[in-house]
Structures are given as C-alpha cells and as structure tokens.
C-alpha cells in the first residue's frame, strides 16, 4: 500500500478567537503524530491552493467573492456566531480545498493507493452559498466534483463519520444521483440536519445516532444503513469526511467511539473501495477537538490506510498500560 499525506503550513495561520475549539493546536497535534517513525513510509506532499474552477464546482461565485471581499487584514471577521476569518483564513481554506483536489489527482494517477489531507479549516458544513460551522469551502464536495469534471469519473461517494452532520455536502450533492453522501452523526446536535428522511434523489443516506451511543451502535448503523447502500452505489472513487469528534473524549459531541472504531470503519471502507474502484480513497480531516483523541485517532486512521490494519493501536496500547 502507498499512502500520501497532504499538509501545508497555511493550516497554522488560520486563527480563531481565544478559546475556540477549532484551533491551530489541532493541526500541530496531527503533525506531531505523523512525524513518528510509524509514518516514515508516507509520501508527503504540500498542498497548493485550489483554483477558482475547482471551488466553483461546489460553490457559487457569490460565495467565493464574498469570502475574498470580507477577509480581514487584521483581527477577526465573523461570518456566524462561531465561524470567523483571520488574516490567514482565506489562504488556509484555499489550501485545504487544494489538498483535496491534489489528493484526487495523485490517487487517480495511480502513484498512490490512497491519501489523507491533514488540513484545517474543515469543510463539511460549508454549503454552496455560505460558510458556517467553522467551514468555508467544502473540500470533500470539491474533491468529488473535481474527480468527475476533471478526470471523467462517473460516480463518487463521500462517507462522513464526523459527530456532526455534513449539511454542506448533503446540500451540494442533493439532486445529483451520481454523487452519494452517507453519514453517521449525533442527533440532535449542530447543525440540526441529517434525519433518515433527508434522502435527496435516493443518493443521501443518513444514520443518526443518539447521545451516549458508542462503537456497537456506530458499527450497526454503518453495517445496516450506510455500507450496503454504498456497495450498491459502486463508487469510482471514495472520499472520506474524516472527523474524529465522535470520540468519547471529544468536548463537542456525546458519542463514545474509540480509535478502534475509526480503524474499523477505515478498513470497511477500504474493502468497499477495493471491490469497486481499485482501493482509491481520498480522506480529508474534518472535526476532532480533544487534542489527544484527535492525534490518536488520526494515527490509527492513517496507519490503517497505509497497511490495511490497525496494528499500531495494539502496539501503542501494550506500551501505554492503563494510564489515562
Ligand atoms: Zn464535527
């Protein structure tokens, strides 16, 4: 297995007000874990910014124009109560989307089997015409559209296991039967969408979970609702909206997943990608706000992408004893 890792220093320049959970330290924690020797075999790339053409496949020209117009030269510009731009935000967001596009190009070139984009800000709440929920450009949707428009793929799926529903991806995919969106998420919770009755044109599959649900309920939801539909859809490329805020330690959600659950879903999605599209997967970082849980979860996710198992989880566990 060959796995690429996309990152860019601009992720460190997107600042949020003090105390905001979507903070620069998140990406430092991710960079720290992938710097360990377990990840020596990753093929590391720096992401360039997405071009307007790629952005505009998922967003309106007004949305892009507005973000350019309001981007501040100092301080913060608030787009909603908890989504704000600092001077470094626009560049970081453009590189976030650019990483997803570049990852699609690299995976479809056959140079790697799969790729993980370790970027911030996240993207799955960004709708075609508005930023919200810490998100500005919907990198997963931009990647899916790019794969179809630029590479000629027919069907692309996004699977989203962030604790929050990806309302933006759902909205952008809503009426396109060649784009599949499947999501597990806590409900009720921000942003309020994601019921099983939101089905688009039969291409949207929501499997809401309740506060307190853990790995058993998560695996059941995936196994009974999302994965069979994905298998039937038969994607030509699989994109993961990889949020790790469904972890039991996360302060924003109340689900109780562990790293093993993230390894499990990564493996299940790799099996489906193997069956339908030669294993081609692009995974983009979404949420995850407990730094330790985020780092550990990204670690097992990327380790699984690299070698198709989560051996490191057991190794780390054996070494860490029961300190918690
Ligand atoms: Zn989230």
Short description:
The protein is of the alpha/beta class. It has ten helices and ten strands.
Chart the SSEs and their pairings.
Layout: E1 3-7, H1 24-34, E2 43-46, H2 52-55, H3 61-70, E3 77-80, E4 83-85, H4 89-109, E5 114-117, H5 139-149, E6 156-160, H6 167-173, E7 179-186, E8 204-209, H7 215-233, E9 237-242, H8 259-277, E10 281-285, H9 291-307, H10 311-320
Parallel strand pairs: 1-2, 1-5, 5-10, 6-7, 6-9, 7-8, 9-10
Antiparallel strand pairs: 3-4
The structure holds zinc ion (ZN).
Q: Please, could you describe this protein's structure?
A:
It is a single chain. With 324 residues, the protein is α/β, with parallel strands linked by helices. Helices cover 40% and strands 15% of the residues. The strands form 2 sheets. The protein has an 8-stranded parallel sheet with strand order 2-1-5-10-9-6-7-8, sandwiched between helices. It has a two-stranded antiparallel sheet with strand order 3-4. Helix 8 (259-277) links the parallel strand 9 and strand 10. The longest helix is centred in the N-terminal third of the chain and has 21 residues, at 89-109. The radius of gyration is 18 Å and the shape is globular. The model has no long low-confidence stretch (mean pLDDT 95). The protein binds zinc ion. Zinc ion (ZN) binds at residues 162-164, 243, 245, 286-287.
Using brief descriptors, characterize the structure shown.
alpha/beta, two-stranded antiparallel ribbon, 10 helices, 10 strands, 15% strand, globular, binds zinc ion
């Amino acid at each position: 297995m060959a796995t690429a890792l996309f990152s860019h220093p601009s992720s460190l320049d997107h600042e949020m007000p003090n105390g905001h959970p979507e903070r620069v330290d998140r990406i430092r924690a991710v960079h720290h874990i992938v710097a360990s020797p377990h990840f020596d075999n990753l093929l590391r790339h720096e992401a360039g910014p997405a071009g307007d053409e790629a952005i505009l496949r998922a967003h309106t020209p007004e949305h892009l124009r507005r973000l350019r117009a309001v981007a501040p030269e100092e301080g913060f510009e608030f787009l909603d109560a908890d989504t704000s731009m600092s001077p470094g935000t626009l560049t970081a967001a453009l590189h976030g989307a650019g990483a997803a596009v570049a990852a699609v190009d690299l995976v479809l070139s056959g140079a790697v089997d799969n790729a993980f984009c370790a970027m911030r800000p996240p993207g799955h709440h960004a709708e075609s015409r508005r930023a919200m929920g810490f998100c500005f450009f919907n990198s997963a949707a931009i990647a899916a559209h790019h794969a179809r428009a630029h590479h000629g793929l027919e069907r692309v799926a996004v699977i989203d296991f962030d604790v929050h529903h990806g309302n933006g991806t759902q909205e952008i995919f809503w009426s396109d039967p060649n784009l599949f969106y499947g999501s597990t998420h806590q409900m009720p919770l921000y942003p309020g969408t994601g019921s099983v009755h939101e089905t688009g044109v039969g291409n949207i599959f929501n499997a809401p979970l309740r506060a307190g649900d853990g790995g058993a309920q998560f695996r059941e939801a995936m196994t009974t609702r999302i994965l069979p539909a994905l298998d039937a859809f038969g994607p030509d490329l699989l994109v993961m909206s990889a949020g790790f805020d469904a972890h039991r330690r996360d302060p924003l959600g109340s689900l109780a997943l562990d790293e093993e659950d993230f390894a499990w879903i990564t493996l299940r999605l790799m099996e489906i990608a193997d069956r339908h599209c030669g294993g081609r997967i692009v995974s983009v970082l979404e949420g995850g706000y407990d730094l330790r849980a985020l780092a550990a979860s990204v670690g097992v996710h990327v380790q699984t992408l690299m070698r198709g198992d989560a051996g490191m989880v057991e190794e780390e566990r054996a070494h860490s004893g029961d300190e918690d």
